[in-house]
Amino acid sequence: MENVIGHVNWIGLWTIIRREMQRLLRVPIQAFVAPWLSALMFIFIFGYVVGPRIATIGGHKYLQFVLPGILMMNVVNAAFLQATSQVYFQRFMKFVEEALVAPLSYVEMIVGTLAAVVFRTAATAVGILIIAAVFGGVQVVSVVEFMFWVVIVSGIFGLLGIVIGLWAKSFEQLSALNIFFITPLSFVGGVFNTVEMLPPFLRWLAWGNPFFYFINGLRHSMIGFNEAPEPLGALLSLAMLAILSVWVWRLFSVGYGLRE
Amino acid sequence: MTPALSVSNLRKVYRGGTVAVDDLSLAVEEGDFFGFLGPNGAGKSTTIHCITGIATVTSGTIKVFGIDAVKDYRKARSLVGLSPQEFNVDVFATPVQIVDWVGGYFGIPSAERKKRIDELMERFDLTEHVKKPFRALSGGLKRRVILARALIHKPKLLILDEPTAGVDVELRLDLWRYLGELNRDGTTILLTTHYLEEVERLCRNIAIVAKGKIVRQGPKEEFLAGGGIEGAYLAATGATPDHIAAGAA
């Protein structure tokens, strides 16, 4: 293949990303406006309506405390929805075959899908930060740490979305994980409250919940507030990313959900 | 000379145990126009899917110009163009987007891709439809987009799975002319079709597949000398004209 440089089909890889961006721009309300609007409502209620009636948490205004959680919930949702819809839509309409018959490696297909995921989550996150800035709730203590959490969590839920997108046989199955696990776990993972606010017998809902570590990590990068040893959260997240990467690579290499 | 396509002892068993292709072997010489015939469900599309990577291979080997299509799949796939039976496209995209994306997948640089897309849009009379979504096109126009997509990277081996199904007479004749030109220019073509007239007009060699196995293979002249392609086809697939006449009565 004359256009493969260093064993990577760069043009093919860029095409996967470019194609998905073009698809997203066909549905901007669904892809971007919906999460921005939802975040705006959360920020308005917690920043202006409920927030002023709540005492500060760790010296931070309630809006500042709750914003990382709102941001993380939207990053998780954007990553998961992007990957599931990209993979499932291609399978459903069978145009995944366009990529299967082309000289693209499994790794290029996975990386291309994840790059589109990161593009969507980054756009979602930037939009929410701009909205929050209008309400005076934005603070980022460590940009590097902030980027780490956004990218790692995008990767985890992008990979999980690929697995579900490959497995699902219907739109109903596609949304099951989101409805039964992702949304409930993110709500009890410390978006709106500290672990201390939970009754002692329910604190396991936070300590045993990966969302707690994602939200805690992002919150630490934004306002410096921390409720768990941060290396533990980072290690847990990197381990999840590694396990899911191997799993997805394996599914692609055997053609699960892709090839007949 | 290395064959353009060599399939040896191909076997494809689907999950659930259905044997779609059973010990199928065939060779298509470089420059050939090869007719791959058989009834519905005989294993033609499955064989094509195994060659192009849409289906996994249970056992056997497939080589495209001597390159293993499983072990060295990227190199092999860069040489093959496929026009499938079904419209496997993003129906909300335009013809230009569809062809452009596949050109990108095949690693064609932007400027070269654009030039090639313009050529193909003009060749298939799609120029006035380039901004319409695929779903808004007529059946014949959709088939043209699929063919343009298969040709974007100038494949050395072109596989056409029922390319004229549902198209009007004008496009069919135009397509026959174009395929003849492509073949004369050196492109090897493997064609599956249910129109035996098409095979008689275009192909030089023919293989007939039934129940996942090749049941007859040879030059077109051999088929014609033995009473015509239709008679040979019906005999080879086990459905003789007498059977059909009896069934119709």
Notes on the protein architecture:
The complex is a heterodimer of chains A (260) and B (249). By secondary structure, chain A is mostly helical. Chain A has one domain (10-254). In chain A, 73% of the residues lie in helices and 0% in strands. In chain A, helix 1 crosses helix 5 and helix 3 (62-92) packs antiparallel against helix 5. The relative contact order of chain A is 0.14. By secondary structure, chain B is α/β, with parallel strands linked by helices. In chain B, a hairpin with a 2-residue loop joins strand 4 (59-64) and strand 5 (67-68). Chain B is globular and about 50 Å long. The N and C termini of chain B lie far apart (50 Å). Chain A: InterPro entries: ABC-2_transport_permease, ABC2_TM, ABC2_TM_bact-type, ABC_2_transport.
Quick gist of this model?
The complex is a heterodimer of chains A (260) and B (249). With 260 residues, chain A is mainly alpha-helical.
Structure characteristics:
heterodimer; A: 260 residues; mainly alpha; 73% helix; 0% strand; globular; B: 249 residues; alpha/beta; Rossmann fold; 2 domains; six-stranded mixed beta sheet; four-stranded antiparallel beta sheet
Secondary structure blueprint with pairings:
The complex is a heterodimer of chains A (260) and B (249).
Chain A (H helix, E strand, L loop, with lengths): L9 H17 L1 H22 L12 H31 L3 H5 L5 H29 L8 H25 L3 H17 L16 H4 L2 H14 L6 H25 L6
Helix pairs in contact in A: 1-5, 2-3, 2-5, 3-5, 3-6, 3-7, 3-9, 5-6, 6-9, 6-10, 9-10
Chain B lengths: L4 E9 L5 E10 L4 E5 L6 H9 L6 E6 L2 E2 L4 H5 L2 E4 L11 H11 L4 H14 L15 H13 L5 E5 L7 H16 L3 E5 L3 H7 L2 E6 L2 E7 H6 L3 H8 L4 H8 L1
Parallel strand pairs in B: 3-8, 3-9, 6-7, 7-8
Antiparallel strand pairs in B: 1-2, 1-4, 4-5, 9-10
